[in-house]
Design goal:
The protein is an all-alpha fold. The protein has one domain. Helix 2 crosses helix 3. The model has no long low-confidence stretch (mean pLDDT 77).
């Protein structure tokens, strides 16, 4: 029982720290996405949570990069 608790703590603390360095997401966002993913999808959420959040962040970043003044087209 103690091994399961230690394993869960290490997995929930180390995984966000390791994944946060490889992505542009902060460690807190990765941690929250892991916890939320586990809450929604179970053990599969350890992977799906951060992937879905990173995908949403990427889509939002692309959407926010659109030009402020769109080019004027000839009629």
């Amino acid at each position: 029982m103690i091994c399961v608790g230690v394993s869960a703590i290490v997995d929930n603390v180390l995984r966000p720290l390791l994944l946060g360095g490889r992505t542009e997401l902060s460690g807190l966002v990765v941690f929250i996405s892991v916890v939320g993913g586990v809450g929604l999808f179970g053990m599969l959420g350890l992977v799906l949570g951060p992937v879905l959040v990173a995908t949403a962040a990427g889509v939002l970043a692309v959407y926010m990069e659109r030009p402020q003044n769109p080019p004027i087209t000839a009629r």
